[in-house]
Design brief:
Structural class: alpha/beta
Order of helices and strands: HEHEHEHEHHEEE
CATH superfamily of the domain at 1-6 and 43-147: Vaccinia Virus protein VP39
CATH architecture of the domain at 1-6 and 43-147: 3-Layer(aba) Sandwich
Strand content: 25-35%
Largest sheet: 7 strands, mixed
Length: about 180
Amino acid sequence: MRILSGKYKGTKIRTYAKRSYRPTLSKVRKSIFDILGPLSNCRVLDIFAGTGILGFESLSRGASSVLFVDNNSLINKILRANTLLFSDCSITIKKMNAIQILKTKQEFDLIFADPPYNYFSQHKRIDVDLFIDMILNKLKTKGRFVLECSNTVEIRYPVRTKLFGETQICIGTKD
């Protein structure tokens, strides 16, 4: 898996062979970042980080910092190894539940959320629209979020949606 554009274009990101995660495909990433446009000086939060490819791509495209959050120890170990490729960047990795980080006081310009496809059906106490509300509370005014989920998830919040097979990309802005 490689960075598509920017300062670190072509940089190979290490992944875990027996992956229990689903990395964002390059054509999906390209579409996301084409929509987002310039990311100069953005503070980015990447929850359910997995490979971290969305956060690393953001750094390559000018983001000032990225906070990666994933509750899997092995994933965090690989994220730490990949940070060595971005030694001049501000990167923080936290092993914690995504909901926990959404309850903190930090604010961000851009939030990526790529939960497991069964997340909203498996965690019935977490409605997708409630989850989006929690994300919006973490965003600065005019901040944006990208939610990658199954195309079967129905979202009532007004978002820009793109479909890629079973994948649904939802991009929204905090007014």
